[in-house]
Protein backbone atom coordinates (compact mmCIF):
# COMPACT_ATOMS: atom_id res chain seq x y z
CA UNK A 1 0.00 0.00 0.00
CA UNK A 2 1.33 3.43 -0.88
CA UNK A 3 1.97 5.82 2.03
CA UNK A 4 0.73 9.27 1.02
CA UNK A 5 3.58 11.35 2.43
CA UNK A 6 2.60 14.32 0.27
CA UNK A 7 -0.73 14.60 2.06
CA UNK A 8 0.93 15.63 5.28
CA UNK A 9 2.17 18.85 3.64
CA UNK A 10 -1.34 19.96 2.84
CA UNK A 11 -3.13 18.45 5.87
CA UNK A 12 -4.08 21.78 7.45
CA UNK A 13 -5.47 23.09 4.16
CA UNK A 14 -7.51 19.96 3.64
CA UNK A 15 -9.08 20.24 7.07
CA UNK A 16 -10.42 23.67 6.14
CA UNK A 17 -11.54 22.66 2.64
CA UNK A 18 -13.42 19.58 3.79
CA UNK A 19 -14.83 20.90 7.05
CA UNK A 20 -18.25 21.07 5.40
CA UNK A 21 -17.97 17.84 3.43
CA UNK A 22 -19.91 15.76 5.95
CA UNK A 23 -23.00 17.94 5.53
CA UNK A 24 -22.69 19.36 2.02
CA UNK A 25 -21.38 16.18 0.39
CA UNK A 26 -24.37 14.18 1.52
CA UNK A 27 -26.74 16.58 -0.18
CA UNK A 28 -25.42 15.68 -3.62
CA UNK A 29 -27.30 13.19 -5.75
CA UNK A 30 -25.72 10.95 -8.39
CA UNK A 31 -26.02 13.68 -11.05
CA UNK A 32 -25.03 16.65 -8.89
CA UNK A 33 -21.33 17.42 -8.88
CA UNK A 34 -19.89 18.69 -5.60
CA UNK A 35 -17.08 21.19 -5.50
CA UNK A 36 -13.88 19.33 -6.37
CA UNK A 37 -11.05 18.92 -3.93
CA UNK A 38 -8.30 21.45 -4.59
CA UNK A 39 -5.62 20.41 -7.04
CA UNK A 40 -2.03 21.04 -6.00
CA UNK A 41 0.90 21.24 -8.40
CA UNK A 42 2.84 18.02 -8.77
CA UNK A 43 6.03 19.56 -7.44
CA UNK A 44 8.56 18.15 -5.03
CA UNK A 45 8.71 20.73 -2.24
CA UNK A 46 12.43 20.24 -1.79
CA UNK A 47 13.71 20.04 -5.37
CA UNK A 48 11.11 22.19 -7.14
CA UNK A 49 10.74 19.54 -9.86
CA UNK A 50 7.54 17.82 -10.93
CA UNK A 51 6.60 14.81 -8.81
CA UNK A 52 7.38 11.43 -10.33
CA UNK A 53 4.59 9.63 -12.11
CA UNK A 54 2.48 7.17 -10.16
CA UNK A 55 3.48 3.66 -11.30
CA UNK A 56 0.90 1.31 -12.80
CA UNK A 57 0.64 -1.76 -10.57
CA UNK A 58 -0.74 -5.25 -11.07
CA UNK A 59 -0.10 -5.49 -14.81
CA UNK A 60 2.62 -8.13 -14.50
CA UNK A 61 2.65 -11.66 -13.17
CA UNK A 62 6.41 -11.35 -12.51
CA UNK A 63 8.23 -8.30 -11.22
CA UNK A 64 11.56 -7.72 -9.45
CA UNK A 65 12.17 -11.48 -9.50
CA UNK A 66 8.89 -12.34 -7.74
CA UNK A 67 6.11 -14.32 -9.46
CA UNK A 68 2.45 -14.85 -8.63
CA UNK A 69 1.97 -18.57 -9.25
CA UNK A 70 -1.70 -19.67 -9.09
CA UNK A 71 -2.25 -23.32 -8.20
CA UNK A 72 -5.93 -22.82 -9.06
CA UNK A 73 -6.34 -21.47 -12.59
CA UNK A 74 -9.92 -22.49 -13.42
CA UNK A 75 -12.90 -21.15 -11.51
CA UNK A 76 -16.43 -22.56 -11.42
CA UNK A 77 -19.19 -19.97 -11.28
CA UNK A 78 -21.73 -20.45 -8.50
CA UNK A 79 -19.69 -23.04 -6.59
CA UNK A 80 -17.52 -22.58 -3.51
CA UNK A 81 -13.93 -23.64 -4.03
CA UNK A 82 -10.49 -23.11 -2.57
CA UNK A 83 -8.26 -20.72 -4.45
CA UNK A 84 -4.58 -21.49 -3.86
CA UNK A 85 -1.39 -19.81 -5.01
CA UNK A 86 2.22 -19.12 -4.13
CA UNK A 87 4.54 -16.16 -4.36
CA UNK A 88 7.77 -17.48 -5.87
CA UNK A 89 10.91 -15.51 -5.07
CA UNK A 90 14.08 -14.80 -7.04
CA UNK A 91 15.59 -18.05 -5.77
CA UNK A 92 12.76 -20.08 -7.32
CA UNK A 93 11.27 -21.00 -3.96
CA UNK A 94 7.96 -20.06 -2.40
CA UNK A 95 8.30 -16.97 -0.22
CA UNK A 96 7.45 -17.54 3.44
CA UNK A 97 8.58 -14.24 5.00
CA UNK A 98 6.39 -11.15 4.53
CA UNK A 99 6.05 -7.77 6.19
CA UNK A 100 2.61 -7.23 7.67
CA UNK A 101 0.79 -4.23 6.22
CA UNK A 102 -2.53 -2.96 7.55
CA UNK A 103 -3.12 -5.99 9.70
CA UNK A 104 -2.29 -8.70 7.17
CA UNK A 105 0.63 -10.08 5.18
CA UNK A 106 -1.17 -10.15 1.84
CA UNK A 107 -4.27 -8.63 0.26
CA UNK A 108 -5.93 -10.64 -2.51
CA UNK A 109 -8.30 -8.90 -4.93
CA UNK A 110 -10.40 -10.92 -7.36
CA UNK A 111 -12.53 -9.12 -9.96
CA UNK A 112 -13.94 -9.85 -13.39
CA UNK A 113 -12.30 -7.97 -16.25
CA UNK A 114 -15.41 -5.83 -16.74
CA UNK A 115 -14.84 -4.86 -13.06
CA UNK A 116 -17.93 -6.69 -11.79
CA UNK A 117 -17.89 -9.13 -8.86
CA UNK A 118 -15.17 -7.40 -6.85
CA UNK A 119 -13.87 -9.29 -3.79
CA UNK A 120 -11.17 -8.29 -1.28
CA UNK A 121 -9.91 -11.44 0.45
CA UNK A 122 -7.31 -12.30 3.07
CA UNK A 123 -5.92 -15.78 2.44
CA UNK A 124 -4.08 -17.92 4.96
CA UNK A 125 -0.44 -18.89 4.39
CA UNK A 126 0.79 -22.39 5.13
CA UNK A 127 4.31 -23.06 6.37
CA UNK A 128 5.46 -24.05 2.87
CA UNK A 129 4.38 -20.68 1.41
CA UNK A 130 1.09 -21.85 -0.11
CA UNK A 131 -1.75 -19.36 0.29
CA UNK A 132 -5.38 -20.48 0.24
CA UNK A 133 -8.79 -18.86 0.66
CA UNK A 134 -12.42 -19.87 0.08
CA UNK A 135 -13.66 -18.24 -3.12
CA UNK A 136 -17.09 -18.16 -4.75
CA UNK A 137 -17.72 -16.21 -7.94
CA UNK A 138 -21.30 -15.63 -9.05
CA UNK A 139 -20.91 -15.53 -12.83
CA UNK A 140 -18.65 -16.92 -15.58
CA UNK A 141 -16.08 -14.75 -17.28
CA UNK A 142 -12.46 -13.67 -17.45
CA UNK A 143 -11.19 -12.74 -13.99
CA UNK A 144 -8.08 -11.05 -12.66
CA UNK A 145 -6.43 -11.85 -9.33
CA UNK A 146 -4.15 -9.27 -7.67
CA UNK A 147 -1.73 -10.13 -4.87
CA UNK A 148 -0.69 -7.04 -2.87
CA UNK A 149 2.20 -7.79 -0.48
CA UNK A 150 5.65 -6.84 0.78
CA UNK A 151 8.32 -9.57 0.93
CA UNK A 152 10.46 -9.17 4.01
CA UNK A 153 13.50 -9.01 1.74
CA UNK A 154 12.14 -5.81 0.12
CA UNK A 155 11.44 -2.35 1.49
CA UNK A 156 8.53 -1.67 -0.87
CA UNK A 157 5.37 -3.58 -1.66
CA UNK A 158 4.65 -5.45 -4.87
CA UNK A 159 1.37 -5.94 -6.69
CA UNK A 160 1.28 -8.89 -9.09
CA UNK A 161 -1.65 -9.92 -11.27
CA UNK A 162 -2.76 -13.15 -12.95
CA UNK A 163 -5.70 -14.04 -15.20
CA UNK A 164 -8.21 -16.69 -14.17
CA UNK A 165 -10.93 -18.28 -16.32
CA UNK A 166 -14.47 -19.21 -15.30
CA UNK A 167 -15.97 -21.02 -18.32
CA UNK A 168 -19.55 -20.34 -19.28
CA UNK A 169 -21.79 -17.87 -21.05
CA UNK A 170 -20.07 -14.56 -20.41
CA UNK A 171 -21.93 -11.31 -21.02
CA UNK A 172 -19.65 -8.36 -20.16
CA UNK A 173 -21.32 -5.48 -18.38
CA UNK A 174 -20.94 -1.87 -19.38
CA UNK A 175 -19.05 0.26 -16.92
CA UNK A 176 -21.53 2.31 -14.86
CA UNK A 177 -21.57 6.04 -15.54
CA UNK A 178 -19.49 8.33 -13.30
CA UNK A 179 -21.34 9.29 -10.14
CA UNK A 180 -20.76 11.44 -7.08
CA UNK A 181 -22.96 9.42 -4.74
CA UNK A 182 -23.99 5.82 -4.24
CA UNK A 183 -25.93 3.79 -1.69
CA UNK A 184 -25.05 0.48 -0.10
CA UNK A 185 -26.67 -1.40 2.80
CA UNK A 186 -28.68 1.67 3.78
CA UNK A 187 -25.67 4.02 3.74
CA UNK A 188 -25.17 6.97 1.41
CA UNK A 189 -21.58 7.51 0.29
CA UNK A 190 -20.54 10.69 -1.52
CA UNK A 191 -17.21 11.69 -2.96
CA UNK A 192 -15.56 15.05 -3.66
CA UNK A 193 -12.47 15.50 -5.80
CA UNK A 194 -11.30 13.64 -8.89
CA UNK A 195 -8.38 11.29 -9.43
CA UNK A 196 -5.79 12.92 -11.66
CA UNK A 197 -2.80 11.74 -13.67
CA UNK A 198 0.36 13.83 -13.74
CA UNK A 199 -0.36 15.90 -10.66
CA UNK A 200 -1.18 15.61 -6.99
CA UNK A 201 -4.85 14.95 -6.32
CA UNK A 202 -7.03 14.25 -3.31
CA UNK A 203 -10.41 12.66 -2.92
CA UNK A 204 -12.69 12.72 0.10
CA UNK A 205 -15.54 10.25 0.62
CA UNK A 206 -18.23 10.85 3.24
CA UNK A 207 -20.58 8.27 4.75
CA UNK A 208 -24.03 8.89 6.22
CA UNK A 209 -27.08 6.84 7.21
CA UNK A 210 -30.62 8.17 7.38
CA UNK A 211 -29.28 11.60 6.59
CA UNK A 212 -26.86 11.63 9.54
CA UNK A 213 -23.06 11.31 9.36
CA UNK A 214 -21.65 8.15 10.91
CA UNK A 215 -18.38 7.59 12.72
CA UNK A 216 -16.33 5.05 10.80
CA UNK A 217 -14.60 2.25 12.68
CA UNK A 218 -11.04 1.02 12.07
CA UNK A 219 -10.78 -1.81 9.57
CA UNK A 220 -7.36 -3.40 9.03
CA UNK A 221 -5.72 -0.41 10.63
CA UNK A 222 -7.49 2.29 8.58
CA UNK A 223 -10.84 4.08 8.53
CA UNK A 224 -11.32 3.07 4.90
CA UNK A 225 -9.69 1.11 2.11
CA UNK A 226 -9.95 2.33 -1.48
CA UNK A 227 -8.88 0.28 -4.49
CA UNK A 228 -8.91 1.92 -7.92
CA UNK A 229 -8.84 -0.11 -11.15
CA UNK A 230 -8.22 1.45 -14.56
CA UNK A 231 -10.66 0.47 -17.29
CA UNK A 232 -9.07 -1.64 -20.00
CA UNK A 233 -5.71 -2.72 -18.58
CA UNK A 234 -6.90 -2.97 -14.95
CA UNK A 235 -3.94 -1.03 -13.57
CA UNK A 236 -4.27 -1.26 -9.79
CA UNK A 237 -3.94 1.21 -6.92
CA UNK A 238 -4.62 0.48 -3.23
CA UNK A 239 -5.16 3.83 -1.52
CA UNK A 240 -5.45 4.53 2.21
CA UNK A 241 -6.21 7.57 4.37
CA UNK A 242 -3.31 9.77 5.38
CA UNK A 243 -1.47 8.85 8.53
CA UNK A 244 -2.93 10.39 11.64
CA UNK A 245 -6.52 10.39 10.34
CA UNK A 246 -9.13 10.53 13.10
CA UNK A 247 -12.48 8.78 13.37
CA UNK A 248 -15.38 10.50 11.63
CA UNK A 249 -17.62 10.22 8.57
CA UNK A 250 -14.96 11.34 6.07
CA UNK A 251 -11.98 9.59 4.50
CA UNK A 252 -9.44 11.56 2.46
CA UNK A 253 -6.97 9.72 0.22
CA UNK A 254 -4.20 10.56 -2.21
CA UNK A 255 -5.91 10.12 -5.59
CA UNK A 256 -2.96 10.50 -7.95
CA UNK A 257 -3.26 7.82 -10.65
CA UNK A 258 -0.91 6.49 -13.33
CA UNK A 259 -3.01 7.26 -16.44
CA UNK A 260 -6.01 9.20 -17.66
CA UNK A 261 -9.30 7.46 -18.40
CA UNK A 262 -12.08 5.78 -16.46
CA UNK A 263 -11.53 4.15 -13.07
CA UNK A 264 -13.75 1.97 -10.95
CA UNK A 265 -13.38 2.86 -7.27
CA UNK A 266 -14.05 0.28 -4.55
CA UNK A 267 -14.34 1.70 -1.02
CA UNK A 268 -14.52 -0.60 2.00
CA UNK A 269 -15.60 0.96 5.28
CA UNK A 270 -16.69 -0.42 8.65
CA UNK A 271 -19.61 0.69 10.81
CA UNK A 272 -21.61 -1.07 13.50
CA UNK A 273 -19.15 -3.95 13.34
CA UNK A 274 -19.76 -4.73 9.65
CA UNK A 275 -17.67 -4.04 6.55
CA UNK A 276 -19.49 -2.49 3.59
CA UNK A 277 -18.42 -2.02 -0.04
CA UNK A 278 -19.30 1.11 -2.02
CA UNK A 279 -18.49 1.37 -5.74
CA UNK A 280 -18.05 4.43 -7.97
CA UNK A 281 -16.93 5.19 -11.50
CA UNK A 282 -14.69 8.24 -11.97
CA UNK A 283 -13.30 9.70 -15.18
CA UNK A 284 -9.96 11.41 -14.76
CA UNK A 285 -8.11 14.13 -16.58
CA UNK A 286 -4.46 14.77 -17.22
CA UNK A 287 -4.13 17.18 -14.32
CA UNK A 288 -2.06 20.33 -14.66
CA UNK A 289 0.96 20.90 -16.85
CA UNK A 290 3.92 23.05 -15.93
CA UNK A 291 5.95 25.26 -18.25
Question: Your description of this structure?
Answer:
This protein is mainly beta and 291 residues long. The protein folds into two domains: 5-54 and 175-284, Sandwich (Immunoglobulin-like), CATH 2.60.40; 62-166, Sandwich (Immunoglobulin-like), CATH 2.60.40. It is 5% helix and 38% strand. It has three helices and 20 strands. It has helices spanning 5-9, 11-17, 21-24, and strands at residues 62-63, 66-70, 81-88, 106-112, 119-121, 124-125, 130-135, 141-149, 158-166, 181-184, 187-192, 196-197, 202-209, 212-213, 225-230, 236-239, 250-254, 256-257, 261-271, 274-284. The strands form five sheets. It has a five-stranded antiparallel sheet with strand order 1-2-3-7-6, with no helix packed on it. Strands 10, 11, 13, 14 and 17 form a five-stranded antiparallel sheet that branches. Residues 1-52 have low confidence and may be disordered.
Kindly summarize this structure in a few lines.
By secondary structure, the chain is mainly beta.
Secondary-structure map with pairings?
Elements (H helix, E strand, L loop, with lengths): L4 H5 L1 H7 L3 H4 L37 E2 L2 E5 L10 E8 L17 E7 L6 E3 L2 E2 L4 E6 L5 E9 L8 E9 L14 E4 L2 E6 L3 E2 L4 E8 L2 E2 L11 E6 L5 E4 L10 E5 L1 E2 L3 E11 L2 E11 L7
Parallel strand pairs: 12-18
Antiparallel strand pairs: 1-2, 2-3, 3-7, 4-5, 4-8, 6-7, 8-9, 10-11, 11-13, 13-14, 13-17, 15-16, 15-19, 19-20
What would the CATH topology of the largest domain be? Immunoglobulin-like
Query: Which bin fits the share of residues in helices?
Result: under 10%
How many domains comprise the coordinates?
Answer: 2
- Which structural class should the secondary elements be placed in? mainly beta
Distance between the termini: 32 Å
Mean pLDDT: 82
Amino acid sequence: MRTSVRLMTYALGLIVVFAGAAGAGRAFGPDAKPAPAPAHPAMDEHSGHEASAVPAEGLQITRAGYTLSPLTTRLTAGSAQTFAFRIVGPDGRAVTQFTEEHGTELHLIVVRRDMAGYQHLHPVRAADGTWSVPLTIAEPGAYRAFADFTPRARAEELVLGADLDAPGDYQPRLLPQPAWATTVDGYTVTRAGEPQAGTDSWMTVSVSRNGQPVTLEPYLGSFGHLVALHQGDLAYLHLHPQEGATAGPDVTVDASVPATGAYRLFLEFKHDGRVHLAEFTATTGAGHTHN
